[in-house]
Design brief:
The complex is a heterodimer of chains A (294) and B (453). With 294 residues, chain A is an alpha/beta fold. Helix content of chain A is 40%, strand content 22%. The longest helix of chain A has 20 residues. Among the domains of chain B are: 65 residues, no CATH class; 243 residues, ABC transporter involved in vitamin B12 uptake, BtuC. Classes of the chains: A alpha/beta (294), B mainly alpha (453).
Chain lengths: 294, 453
């Protein structure tokens, strides 16, 4: 497929993925590979089909055609296009966050992280029988779940707000909590849909560090949709660029930044040469936002 | 109104006030004309005539006009006072009630346990207490479905009916006693909960409410029409009363040969009130089991999944939670508790018919949950007590002009309470949610953190 010659073990192979809504082709014949233990970014102007790719990956949409193969670190192979949404998260270990945050707003931060460990706890509680009588088997599992939640609360700096309602947290904290919650299902692949949206520069800097730490410490592969170029260029190992549902570029940040097709997609046909990269990024973002029909 | 300090008249826009009052009076007129102004009188032989009461309409219109004018004046007079935000009475009461929920619970339990022995208590009062507790139990059961899982169920009475009829029929056909039939009734109701759950898995909110409402009606209509099995509208008679470990509540002198009676075994004088007390304690214990069961479930993975489902189903799926199992478990558990309450209802009444399981029962149970505060155990007790006792209160005020008939206005008070709750406390009387698990002790996380470091 599109895997480059020096590719190490892939975690995710997307082959000829298409998603049509009636006459609209949201994603057309998209193929790319995400490597294990790396951060792969999907970028593109608004309406390019990035979130649709995510929805196909996580089972919220059934792709019109194509194949999505997940190579789980356990050695199992999962064909995501034919699995139910919750099975993808539960068995294939694909966790995701949402563009518009979807926390359990009425529950506390801690509860959010414990709900994420539902399947493990449910097993330990033996369909609630062991739980009802508070047998050691359940008690230990719950203690372990709280410990894991505590670890991630500490990691995202929300230890003090652990007992706050998630909906009462500041916006940036909600974004971080959602990432922590996704990490609590112990995923193999973490899909982040615009994690830096609405964050100020300091917060997105912190987000960079968090994502790099996740990659380094947890050996987790990350798939990232992002508009914030400081995040994308700063941490991605590989970038896939979409425009109108089709892949127009694929490579390292430097390669993509200098790809004429990318600059054309972001800036239009004219004046594509000679722009310093920083300017290209800034203008690119504005151009993307102002693009009609998104 | 004259007591108020008269504000500078220039600041009060009198014409606009009069206009508003006139509009109110007009609306009152439109409503009062058919509802108050015309009374149908029976002439005998089935003919009705309309009897007009324009005087009453006029009084209503004048009261509305003057009232609206006075209210507008009062508001305008206060308009330039500085705004002072004070939490409302209910907000403070609710906060206090949740802060001391444990103490209130223990006090309430102590009251409930000693109720038959308190001064002024009587068989009648204990009987009302039994009735209240049935609704408390139903409210707690429905709370699982509506309050925790967020699935609006308008047909809860169906499971109440399934529980009642499964005991009634098993007693009639196989001679099972209450205690033998109780688990069967629970299992049957839970199965019905799952059967209902499957077709409505994809529905939420209003759509779900309509389908569950239909399901409740289907059960009632089946019970009415399937005469071979359910004896149709005539219902089932002679359902056995529960026994106390095999001891029946009968006069030893009248009991058939060979039966052990409660009074005889304990060497007491037989009193009919013993059975009323016994029934009261049975439902008290059933309700308490329901309470501990649901409170415990809430702190378990199932309970947290129910609440997560209420908050966001899509996020649940993204976390690998199977929404189907979560929904079905909520329906099954809620239905099972309703079925237990239904069995108790059957054994208490000794007679059941489809009449007892109409839609209004579902509405009352739902109102208990919604008024009390979704997810609040204490709130359910509070609103069940008020709603069940309201029709009874008329008897206590015999001879006092207005209060005497207060039971007749039950639905009116009910409606007004609903509107009031929706305006002032849209999430119910006691709406504070206590986390199912805490990392830091209540109210002191900073201190705890500081100590730890």
């Amino acid at each position: 497929m599109t895997a480059s010659s020096a590719a190490p073990a892939p975690i995710l192979e997307v082959e000829h993925l298409s998603m049509r809504f009636g006459g609209l082709i949201a994603v057309g014949d998209l193929s790319f590979v995400a490597e294990a233990g790396k951060i792969t970014a999907i970028i593109g102007p608004n309406g390019a089909g990035k979130t649709t790719v995510f929805n196909c990956l996580t089972g919220f949409y059934k792709p019109s055609s194509g194949r999505l193969t997940l190579h789980h670190p356990s050695g199992n192979r999962y064909l995501l296009e034919r699995m139910d949404g919750f099975r993808i998260a539960r068995f294939a270990g694909v966790a995701r966050t949402f563009q518009n945050i979807r926390l359990f707003a009425g529950m506390t931060a801690l509860e959010n992280l414990i709900v994420a460990q539902h399947n493990k706890l449910m097993q330990a509680s033996a369909f609630s029988i062991a739980g009802l009588f508070n047998l050691p088997r359940y008690r230990n599992a719950e203690a372990a779940a709280v410990e894991r939640a505590r670890y991630w609360l500490d990691k995202v700096g929300l230890m003090k707000q652990a007992d706050w309602e998630a909906g009462a947290l500041p916006y940036g904290a909600q974004r971080r909590l959602e990432i922590a919650r996704a990490m609590c299902i112990e995923p193999a692949l973490l899909c982040l849909d615009e994690p830096a949206a609405g964050l100020n520069p300091r917060e997105s800097g912190e987000l960079n560090e968090l994502l790099l730490a996740i990659r380094a410490e947890q050996k987790i592969s990350v798939l990232l949709i992002e508009h914030d170029m400081s995040v994308v260029m700063g941490i991605s190992d590989r970038i896939v660029v979409l425009d109108y549902g089709r892949k127009i570029s694929d490579g390292t940040p430097t390669e993509v930044r200098n790809d004429p097709a990318v600059i054309r997609a972001y800036l239009g046909e004219e004046e594509t040469d000679e722009l310093p990269p920083e300017v290209a990024q800034d203008v690119g973002m504005n151009g993307a936002a102002a693009r009609p029909g998104a | 109104m004259a007591v108020l300090a008269v504000p500078a008249l220039s600041r009060i826009d009198l014409p606009s006030l009069v206009k508003k009052a006139g509009f109110t009076a007009f609306i009152t007129f439109l409503l009062a004309l058919p509802m108050v102004g015309m009374q149908t009188t029976d002439q005998g032989a089935g003919s009705l005539t309309i009897h007009f009461r324009f005087g009453s309409v006029a009084i209503g219109v004048i009261v509305a006009f003057v009232g609206r004018l006075g209210f507008g004046y009062w508001r305008a007079a206060r308009a330039d006072r500085p705004v002072k935000s004070v939490p409302g009475v209910f907000t403070r009461l609710s906060a206090a009630a949740t802060d001391h929920s444990r103490a209130i619970g223990i006090a309430g339990l102590a009251f409930a346990v000693t109720l038959p022995f308190l001064p002024y208590s009587s068989g009648y009062i204990v009987d009302i207490g039994t009735n209240v507790l049935i609704y408390v139990m139903l409210g707690w059961g429905l709370n699982v479905v509506v309050g925790l899982a967020g699935l609006l169920d308008l047909g809860y009475v169906a499971f109440y009916a399934v529980g009642a009829y499964s005991f009634g029929l098993f007693a009639q056909w196989f001679g099972l006693t209450f205690w033998e039939a109780l688990p069967i009734a629970g299992v049957l109701s839970a199965s019905f909960g799952i059967v209902l759950g499957f077709p409505v898995l994809r529905l939420r909110g209003d759509y779900l409410a309509i389908v569950t409402l239909g399901f409740g009606e289907i059960i009632r209509i089946v019970l009415t029409n399937w005469s071979d099995v359910t004896n149709g509208p005539n219902g089932i008679n002679g359902i056995p009363r529960p026994s106390f470990f095999g001891l029946v509540f009968q006069d030893p002198a009248l009991a058939p040969e060979g039966t052990h009676t409660f009074a005889g075994f304990f060497g007491l004088d037989f009193q009919p009130v013993h059975r009323i007390w016994f029934l009261y304690y049975v439902i008290l214990i059933l309700a308490l089991i329901t309470n501990f069961f649901t409170l415990r479930l809430r702190k378990l993975p199932v309970g947290r999944a129910w609440e997560a489902l209420r908050e966001d189903e899509i996020a649940c799926r993204a976390l690998g939670i199977n929404p189907r199992n979560v929904k079905l478990s909520a329906f099954a558990i809620g239905a099972m508790l309703g079925g237990f309450a239904g069995s108790f209802f059957a054994t208490r009444q000794g007679f059941i018919s489809p009449e007892s399981f109409t839609f209004i029962e579902s509405a009352v149970i739902l109102a208990i949950v919604v008024l009390g505060g979704m997810g609040s155990q204490l709130g359910v007790v509070l609103s069940a007590t008020v709603l069940v006792m309201l029709p009874e209160t008329g008897r206590w005020f015999t001879g006092i002009p207005v209060l005497e008939n207060i039971g007749d206005y039950r639905m009116l008070i009910f409606g007004m309470a609903m509107i009031g709750i929706m305006i002032w406390r849209p999430r119910g009387l006691l709406s504070h949610r206590e986390p199912s698990i805490r990392l830091h002790p209540k109210g002191g996380y900073v201190a705890a953190e500081d100590v730890a470091r």
